[in-house]
Amino acid sequence: MPFVKPYTYVDGQTLDFDDQRLNEEAAKVYVNQEIVIGDIGVDLDYDEIEAGEYQPITGDHKFASSFIAGQNINNEALNRSYFTSTTKANTQTAASSVQYRDVAGCGKQIVLDQSAQVLISWEVAFIANANSTTSGGDGQGQWENKVLLKHIDYSAANPTPTYIAGTRGYVFEPTGAPSGLLDPNAGGNAAAYRQVMGSYSLILSRGKHDLQLAINPKVEAGWASAKNFLVEVFYL
């Protein structure tokens, strides 16, 4: 049954606190599958509530109804995930040069027992240093590295990567075109620093799925660090 809010918002009309609270309370009841206080008996003890099981090696937390999976990697040099455009078969930085690379340590593979709504959230710190040459005649310091969420459905007959356009982010070089400037007074890694974050919701079918952040590199040397990637599963 679709959610019906008690109060309907009217454009241009002052919002009353009680009306807003009414909508929020109704939304909480709906999201919680309409479980209200009266459904819980006074004899219910805390040890009767499913606390879930934590898997410290994979960082996953499994509950009776669903699970949460994710990765978190700090900003130490040893944890950097490098990327480069020099491995491309054609011009490094041309608009037609699209070859995505996985951002290591920023993805999860999940197995669903049934159809579910999956919420994916990520925050990644990127460093994209300026190109040292004008390889291919494309210029220097004016190219973006495009970041997208990649999804592979392994239950499909021919599993192929799908790059979700609604998740795109950009990591610009620190010099060159005005759009690439972060801080004119900064230099080195400080000027090259970009932070990409986002969230996306998918309805996925039963089976194995791969969710991974990917980047189309257009710089000779760059890396990602301080990565956080979280997958929350809500069975339908």
How many separate structural domains? 2
In what range is the share of β-strand residues? 35-45%
Indicate the structural class: mainly beta
CATH fold topology of the largest domain: Jelly Rolls
**SSE series:** HEEEEEEEEHEEE
Task: Describe, in plain words, how this protein is organized in 3D.
Helix content is 8%, strand content 42%. The chain has helices at residues 17-31, 189-192, and strands at 53-55, 60-62, 67-73, 81-83, 101-112, 116-128, 144-153, 162-172, 193-204, 207-216, 222-235. The protein is globular. The longest helix is centred in the N-terminal third of the chain and has 15 residues, at 17-31. It has two domains: 1-44, no CATH class; 50-235, Jelly Rolls.
Q: What's this, in brief?
A:
The chain is mainly β.
Q: Topology, please?
A:
Elements: H1 17-31, E1 53-55, E2 60-62, E3 67-73, E4 81-83, E5 101-112, E6 116-128, E7 144-153, E8 162-172, H2 189-192, E9 193-204, E10 207-216, E11 222-235
Antiparallel strand pairs: 1-2, 2-3, 3-11, 4-11, 5-10, 6-9, 6-11, 7-8, 7-10
What descriptors fit this protein?
236 residues; mainly beta; Jelly Rolls; 2 domains; seven-stranded antiparallel beta sheet; four-stranded antiparallel beta sheet; 2 helices; 42% strand
